[in-house]
Description:
The structure holds 2 protein chains of 2 kinds. Chain A is an all-alpha fold. Helix content of chain A is 69%, strand content 1%. Chain A has 2 domains: 74-98 and 303-338, no CATH class; 115-291, MetI-like fold, CATH 1.10.3720.10. In chain A, strands 1-2 form a two-stranded antiparallel ribbon. In chain A, α11 packs antiparallel against α12. Chain A is globular, with a radius of gyration of 25 Å. In chain A, 43% of the residues are buried. Chain B is mainly alpha-helical. In chain B, 76% of the residues lie in helices and 1% in strands. In chain B, β1 (231-232) and β2 (235-236) form a beta hairpin. The chains are: A mainly alpha, B mainly alpha. At the A-B interface, α1, α2, α3, α6 and α7 of A face α1, α3, α4, α5 and α6 of B.
Amino acid sequence: MTTSPDVQPGVAVTESRQTPAAPSGPAAPGGRPSRRDRAGNGLTPGWLPWLLQAPALVVLFGLLVYPLVRVAVLSFQDFGLRELVTGESSWVGLDNFTEVLTDPLLWKVALPNTAVFAAVNVFLTVAVGTAVALLLAKLGPWARGILTSAIMVAWAMPAVTGTYVWVYLFDARDGFVMQTLGSLGLVDPETTNWFTERLPFFAIATANVVHHGFPFVAVTILAGLMTVPKEMLEAAALDGAGAWRRFRYVTMPLLKPVFAVVTILSTIWDFKVFTQIYLMPGGSGTNREVLNLGTWSYITAISQNRYGLGAAIAVLLTLLLLVITAVYLRTLFKQEEL
Amino acid sequence: MTRTASSRFWLAIGFLVVLGFSLGPVLIMLSTAFDGRANDGSRGLLPTEWSLENFAFVLDEGGFVTYLRNSLVVALATVVISSALALLASVAVSRFRFRFRTSVLIMVLVVQMVPLEALVIPLFIQAKTLGMLNHLFGLVVVYVAFSLPFAIWTLRGFVSAIPRELEEAAYVDGASWPRMFWSILFPLVAPGLVATSVFSFITAWNEFVFAITFLNDQDSYTVAAGLRQFFTQYGTDWGAVMAGSTLITLPVMIFFVIVQKRLSDGLVAGAVKG
């Protein structure tokens, strides 16, 4: 059942339906005869595809692949301001990695701030997104139209301006929330600053990230929900299953691939969160308690000119993401086989 | 009877909660931007005194006229270049079978996962060496690279959805490959190009990390970088920050809401059809 093509629109938004595995299979996607494909119609020369994709490949290699190699090389070098000017570089072996891996900041601050934050945010984003999708599916066409537009507005809010609004809401002196709670006598605006402490800082960042991320999940899961056959839900209802059981035992298994994709994509995005942390008070390096791997790497390299060390942190973050990406690709391959 | 009534009640509650959570931050942004007394410590859901003062300030003294122009130039250049490159590449990977085709596709998928933080260090060093800092074109090249993988992946679905018979009919009528591409493929892929263009535009318009790293000359700031000047050690000019944020956000939002239908249709079609 899960292979029903109609389930795919959900996955679709994530541009993930097609996997690179497909072309190597006997039947190309869409069931086109592969003989014709290979021949390129016999009317077009064999170099044509290379000519067509050459400009894109040059850009991808020059600006994504080569810099990745370069950052890996940098992580084994002592590269500072002097090297930036002279263009020379000296190899230091694993020194940068030793320095990062033995730094308590990594284990006590940056890694938890990255991994725990991502875990919490992924869970909340997917939970809120799913709840909103279920709500949208129940609403009449009119209310659904309004709500879809509203969550599109949340989705469209740029990370930069969104972060400023959340900072503003909770600002120590002028914040809307602070003033409201202060006037109710619940907090003392004179002595409270939520941004200096780690937990409130990340709670505010979580509100921001979930607000920015749930619309994608909601829209994707809604597209999946539309494909769940009504008869199955009715049959389950006749058998006495309540709303929760229908969701848990009918909808969830059918939408498993969709859930897998939104979860993994959200994980990748939430591990890479940068702007939302960097732009918060203290996030740009003045408060080391709130560094995550991304901001730590950036601040070490760009603000402190220790490019080699910053590169080593960036490499660690990239390796973490590669592992997640590998899981992502495997999930996609599995889906294709189903 | 009571059951439907209570479920309608909960639906209404859910509707309001989601509506409030989605729109709340936007409303706060707008009301502060239009509040002439935003910096007097007045805090309300509605402006205490409607005024365009904050907008006048950011556009004039804040230099946002220049920043908006820079952002627009960068975003449009990104859209044009990345659409052209992605269209050609997507035709290559969906209409031809060649060696390394699978490798190219895997690369397109994998590079999307690369964290910006890993790229910003080597590209900053590169741009500095090449003297490309403070050049908007340097940013355009970077944004083209960021928007390409997604655009190729999405357009690929659109190209594949076009029946081969149409192409063959063109050949039978004596058309050359470029003629066929221009008269058959291009018009049929146009809706997909709209979707990917919107995404490329938003990528370039919203991008922040490279903008603050590459640009340190005020005249070349994009909007995302320009907002930072309202945060000073003496305090924050929230009225100006929110007015600037409104100028950045509104075009993107209007864009998003208008194309939402076409956007989701386009993405669905792009990904479902192989």
